[in-house]
Automatic annotation (TrEMBL):
It holds the Pfam family PspA_IM30. PANTHER family: MEMBRANE-ASSOCIATED PROTEIN VIPP1, CHLOROPLASTIC, PHAGE SHOCK PROTEIN A. Residues 198-208 have a biased composition (Acidic residues). This is PspA/IM30 family protein. Belongs to the PspA/Vipp/IM30 family. InterPro entries: PspA_VIPP1. Residues 139-208 are annotated as: Disordered. It comes from the Bacteria.
Amino acid sequence: MFSFFKRVKTVVGSELNAMLDKAEDPVKMLDQFMREMEADIRDAEAAVAKQIANEKMLQKKFEDAEKMVQKRQEQAVKALEAGNEELARKALEDKKIHQSTADSLKASYERAKQDADSLRVKLDEMKSEYNEMKLKKDALKARAESAKTRTKMNRAMSSIGGDEGRKGFERMEEKVLRFEAEAETSEDLRSSSRSLDDELDALDEKDAVDDELAALKKELGKE
């Protein structure tokens, strides 16, 4: 019934780390330990309740036997006072039987009470052990989660700072520089082309003005 203590000592002791090392998920393993402890405590509580009920039952029977002893004693006295010695004898004989029963029940009741008290103490110890383990479990779970987070962060940082990541970044940087160079080149070509067009347009405009000026001079006889 109290195999729980053996398991608790194993969990609390140095074997805990070895058991966790073998577990794929330490957090799940710790939760399983706690569920087993809770089940043992429930079994122990049921056993204690049953023992207490047995104690109270024996106590009542013992008290009832004691009352019968007292009752037969009083009846024997009344019978003698009434001059009925035979009835008094019967009352005393029955008193003796009840006294023997009371003595036996008293011994059984005292043993049951001792057992119940002992089980109560053990149950309290179990609950104390459980609370201690619960605190330890919470601390270990927090440490496990922290370790997992650190591992993920370290892997992420290693990936970011690794050669592969750095080379990829450099390739993207070169591509951006190439795009910028191509944009600047196309802009220069566009500017160059625009300057030539402007000069040609200006030449056409000059020729038109010269032709108009010549026509006007001819009209006025200035040639």
